[in-house]
């Protein structure tokens, strides 16, 4: 083979190798993307309104960055995905940014609808992790009173910041102070909720009692496996001590629920209707109103 022919053959081979590599690299990127498509990163600071299973027409207020997740837990069932897969580059919204965006949205909803039932602090992580959370609650209550005085203000929080008096005081001012307590078993917490810092469930329970009943306990019940180990917290060994803690906290209400969307950990399973109904009925029998969402 002449030198020129050899050079052309070599170039063709390199080109086909490049095409093959590109195809597989593109395929790899697409499959990574489709895994992440199961999870949701919300716009910030306002999103929706969305229709919530538990709360009705809900206008979302997201105090975390709009390009990723910030949470003091890293739950294996989090609809936003794992913390490590969604590290944000943007900052958390400021008090002024939240107030301006919220007022613009409320003016739009007043003209075009729909009427919100509730303003819900939720989104890409833990709302009380925003250092301006207490002031933002005050702004939100003021704007709620001006535009939709019948709407409720709800906060969904994982309870990790309620040791701070200013956070507790702000949560006392909202209508629905919805705080997570999935279990009181430290091993289960480390396996499922995966706190990113120090977490002492006994202290959390003591702080939950400080709300004097102005608190709604929210608990996820589920089944299935994570890293090959069971994460079923519907059994008596989990439910009985959890129920004792709930009675001790004496909340105004309990909300139990199960997985509703795809989760970043793919081997999790829903608790059944019967299991949730049975736990709900035990809470009600203890004199505490309780709802179950399936
Ligand atoms: S506490 Fe909520 S936002 Fe944080 S990781 Fe758990 S489910 Fe996600």
Question: Can you give a write-up of this model?
Answer:
The chain has 8 helices and 11 strands. A hairpin with a 3-residue loop joins strand 1 (46-52) and strand 2 (56-61). It has helices spanning 3-36, 95-112, 133-147, 165-173, 186-193, 201-209, 236-249, 273-285; strands spanning 46-52, 56-61, 118-121, 152-157, 176-180, 216-220, 222-226, 229-230, 253-257, 268-270, 290-293. It has a single domain (2-293), classed as Alpha-Beta Barrel (TIM Barrel). With 294 residues, it is an alpha/beta fold. Helix 2 runs parallel beside helix 3 and helix 3 packs parallel to helix 4. The N and C termini lie far apart (72 Å). The strands form 2 sheets. It has an 8-stranded mixed beta sheet with strand order 1-2-3-4-5-6-9-11. Residues 18-37 have low confidence and may be disordered. Bound molecules: iron/sulfur cluster.
Write a brief caption for the model:
By secondary structure, the protein is an alpha/beta fold. Helix content is 41%, strand content 18%.
- CATH architecture type: Alpha-Beta Barrel
Q: How many domains?
A: 1
| CATH class bucket | Alpha Beta
Tell me what portion of residues adopts beta-strand conformation.
15-25%
List the bound ligands: iron/sulfur cluster
- The span between the termini is 72 Å
Determine the mean pLDDT: 91
């Amino acid at each position: 083979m002449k030198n020129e022919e050899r050079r052309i053959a070599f170039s063709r081979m390199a080109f086909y190798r490049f095409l093959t590599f590109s195809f597989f690299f593109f395929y790899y990127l697409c499959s990574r993307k489709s895994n992440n498509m199961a999870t949701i990163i919300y716009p910030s600071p306002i999103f929706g309104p969305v229709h919530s299973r538990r709360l009705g027409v809900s206008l979302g207020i997201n105090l975390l960055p709009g390009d990723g997740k910030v949470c003091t837990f890293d739950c294996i069932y989090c609809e936003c995905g794992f913390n490590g897969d969604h590290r944000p580059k943007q900052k958390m919204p400021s008090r002024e940014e939240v107030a301006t965006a919220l007022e613009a949205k409320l003016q739009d909803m007043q003209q075009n609808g729909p009427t919100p039932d509730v303003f819900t602090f939720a989104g890409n992580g833990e709302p009380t992790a925003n250092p301006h959370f207490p002031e933002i609650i005050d702004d939100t209550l003021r704007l709620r009173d001006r535009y939709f005085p019948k709407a409720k203000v709800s906060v969904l929080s994982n309870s990790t910041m309620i040791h701070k008096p200013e956070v507790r005081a702000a949560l006392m001012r909202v209508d629905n102070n919805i705080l997570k307590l999935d279990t009181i078993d430290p091993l289960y917490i480390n396996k499922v909720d995966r706190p990113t810092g120090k977490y002492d469930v006994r202290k959390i329970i003591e702080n939950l009692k400080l709300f004097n009943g102005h608190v709604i306990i929210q608990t996820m019940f589920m089944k299935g496996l994570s890293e090959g180990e069971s994460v079923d917290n519907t059994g008596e060994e989990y439910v009985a001590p959890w129920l004792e803690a709930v009675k001790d906290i004496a909340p105004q209400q309990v909300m139990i629920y199960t997985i509703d969307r795809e989760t970043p950990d793919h081997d999790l399973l829903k608790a059944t209707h019967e299991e949730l109904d049975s736990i709900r009925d035990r809470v009600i029998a203890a004199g505490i109103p309780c709802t179950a969402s399936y």
